[in-house]
Amino acid sequence: MAATITVPEGWAWVAAALLSAQFLLSGQAFIVGRRRQTAGIEYPQLYAEKAQVEASKDAKIFNCAQRAHQNTLEFIPVVYSSTLLTAVCYPNFAAAACGTWVFGRILYTRGYITGDPAKRNSQGGFIGSIAQIGLLIGSITSVFKLMQASL
């Protein structure tokens, strides 16, 4: 049995923003793999040990790359769900906020993989946080509107 789903205008941008997050994750995974190889950290070791970090700047950079990717993976379910919830009522805003979060994550990753963890928040962390707060507010507003409409 076929079903038709009607989505608000602007959902193509939401799809594009969500797809950009997949490219972000793939790019981060690629960076982690390259940094793992450069540092000589063998699988299944998740992070370089303290002694490895003290002996090699490459090991520290690997840890920073791995942590940037892991942190993104920790936030991605929240970003995906809040983007989708926001997009029910505000698709253009949801797409813009999700895209901004991805852009912030790119800057976050570029700062982190310098080997100086403090650089992760110089711009990227702030931009991503503002976008995520926007998505949270958009989600709350959308859910509230949906609940009002169902009463």
Automatic annotation (TrEMBL):
Principal location class: membrane
Subcellular locations according to the entry: Membrane
GO MF term set: glutathione peroxidase activity; glutathione transferase activity
GO cellular component terms, semicolon-separated: endoplasmic reticulum; membrane; nuclear envelope
Keyword Transmembrane assigned: yes
Membrane topology according to the record: Multi-pass membrane protein
Pfam families per the UniProt record, alphabetical: MAPEG
Transmembrane helix found in the keyword field: yes
Matches recorded under InterPro entries: MAPEG, MAPEG-like_dom_sf, Membr-assoc_MAPEG
SUPFAM superfamilies: MAPEG domain-like
Transmembrane segments: 12-32, 126-147
Keyword terms, alphabetized: Membrane, Transmembrane, Transmembrane helix
Protein name: Membrane-associated proteins in eicosanoid and glutathione metabolism
Organism per entry: Guyanagaster necrorhizus
The organism's taxonomic lineage, starting at the top: Eukaryota, Fungi, Dikarya, Basidiomycota, Agaricomycotina
